[in-house]
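Below is the record:
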Amino acid sequence: MTEVDQLAERFRASHAVLVAARGRLQAAADAGTASDDQLKRLDTVKELLTPVKTTSVDADGNVVEVERPRQFYSVDPEGQGRAVEVLGDLQTAKNIAVLVPGMGNSLDTFNGQADRGEVIKQEAGPGTAVVVWLDYDSPQGLVEAASQDAAIEAGPRLAEFLNEVDELKADDADVTLVAHSYGTKVAVEAVMAGARPKRLVTTGSPGIEKYVDEAADVVQPPTRMYTERAPGDYVSYTEWFGPDPANFSDAIRMATSDPRVDDDPVSVHWHNEYYRPNSEALRNIGRVVRGDLTSITTTNTSRSAETKLFLGTSWGGPLHAVAKAASKVYDGVVALTKPSKESAGAAAGQAAAGRPANGAGRGSEGRRR
């Protein structure tokens, strides 16, 4: 089976999974036994099964509208749900972007992320394919998002997927990993697990790794890091997981508002506006994806300048200080609840001997938290 056939088979298999899920959920709905969550999931599955309308050229040279199923590389409709969707032709694209969403996402929010992937695809221009990668359990609230666990678990899987993309893509195609918020931690875990995208873009990062102060500490050639932090992005100011990569001197900090105009008509502020159409933030992401690196606009504004209030005061700095202190307390509490190396070793020995140990399975040493 050729790689083209293998990819088409994956799309067909994922379509079949969704069709089967629709049947099960519809049967429960018709029987009146479906829960509210199941009814919501039924609506989601129906949306994911809705064909995409595109244009094509027929045998007579006429432009016609055609419909085709959506291209899911993988999908899991159970529980929180996961999905990986390909927008465009992955095997012929010159430029490929892999989008990694942040917290608060599930299969029921996937269409919003697919829309974000589509605007990246349109901004990057012809010859671009985008993969929306939600193949991990995105934290569903602030308590879950305070932990690195989901990212540490997801990173190696994302790295494996990027290796699969390398096998499927054209030899001269470049891959850009684009990650938002908690997704930036997932992306860096993938890079640290061996993934080597051509470029890495982080937007609104809550920090990527403790005790690092430059991009070279986490990304290796040929990967180059590009970052965005919008004015007022409170998530980035917290630096919960470590330094914000927007502060790294060896990363390219891209502007989120056009520095060449006095009043950018599409302003980007706060945490969730990086992918607004016609914004400088999205234009810069598109430039990175298509390799138009000389056109990127940059900035070097500080937290204080981005959150200036009056009489020289700002709220960015105080928020950072409070969050940093809270992060240290959180780290300390988590460390106290995890077994020491000695007790973990004893637990492993007891498990090998078939004896359950108190506290076994509660965590592991290292960066997990």
Summary: The first strand starts at residue 52 and ends at 57.
